[in-house]
Here is the input.
Amino acid sequence: MDSIAKWAAGTAYGPVLSQTDLYLLNADLELNPILANDSGSFQLIFNLSTGQTNGYNPDSRDRDIPFTQKDEPATLPRVEELIIITEVSPWCTIIKNPQGVTLGDVCTTMFKEYSEKMVTEKEFDSLPPRQQEQLRRYAQSAAAAGGNWSYYSPAPPPPTQYRRADWLREKVFFDRLAKKEGYAKQRLGYNAPNVFVLVLSTY
Here is the structure.
């Protein structure tokens, strides 16, 4: 019988656990080493602001490696839902896939949540004035970078709405997912096996 690589893409892993299954079984989830930043051969480079995903191998740092593992399961056992929070933003991202959440689902959903959803007025007002000003500056530089305006044309007007990615300021790169039970309880009022904390970095 052929053996299947532990994190290979596909459905050869037994059932996908629903939220109810997960709570009833209180199953421990093993995180894919790429999401845990624990894979010796591939480090994920994922920018939440631009959606760019690739990776590199510490042994060959001179070139980027394509992100071909996007169909691998995010956890074993596979689950229908992952709940992601982070210490640098107030939002909770729920990643869903009835066939089991994959690495690609994590990246796609996180990018959409942070690039397509806007900071509400109430959320913006909750920031201290200094952080409001920093957010404004980052949003303006992101808009200028994405607008392809030339040196001789006038700078684009400052944005009046801010993407969630702007809230992160320079911390837009995925570093890893981690378990932080105390923080999850503080943020959500509960902890569960499929709740993970997103750790971000500046590069």
The chain has a mean pLDDT of 88.
